[in-house]
Design brief:
Number of helices: 5
Radius of gyration: 20 Å
Strand content: 25-35%
CATH superfamily: Electron Transport, Fmn-binding Protein, Chain A
Largest sheet: 9 strands, antiparallel
CATH architecture: Roll
Number of domains: 1
Structural class: alpha+beta
Length: about 210
Amino acid sequence: MNQKNSLGIDLCFKDVDNPIDLFAEWFNEAKKTEINDPNALALATVGKNGIPSVRMVLLKDFNEKGFVFFTNLNSRKSIEIKSNQKASMCFHWKSLLRQVRITGEISNVSDLDADNYYNSRSYGSRIGAWASNQSSILKSRDELLKSIEEFKKKYPNEKNIPRPKHWSGWNLNPFEIEFWLDGKDRIHERLSYNRKDNNKWEKNLLSP
């Protein structure tokens, strides 16, 4: 029999008032069991046309201030974020039968944070940030490959490639986080945290 916490749900939910602490616990478990990219998440944004779009991105950092990912600032996701700063993330860890949904408001990371992460990437990834005009239409794959070779010639020193101004990071500052655990007969367990005006979190059980 599974152990239960004080709310009567699985002990994996812990008894914590801060959802960031619980996310850290679940994320650490996912890193042990997910074969590929435990930091992969579905990011949903909505543009000026009101049509939602979703894609997978990789979480690169998280703390009390939010959840961070990096991308081209001219990409579709970034254009939509610039017009509507509200967005949602969804982590699904199949190996654990767990899911986390996060909703909040997105803002730019600092130039220092963007520089630090950019400089930690491989040479090819840094060149790719220059060479790829993300989300734009390509006439052929060769067009992209030619651009990559041109930027390799421009920046042959692997230790000295400046970060493009059009490449940076976004931080989603959450106001709602929901934790989900698969249950028998689809009687799932759900725990929701909502940030109040005093920055304290209110938690509630949700019906499956």
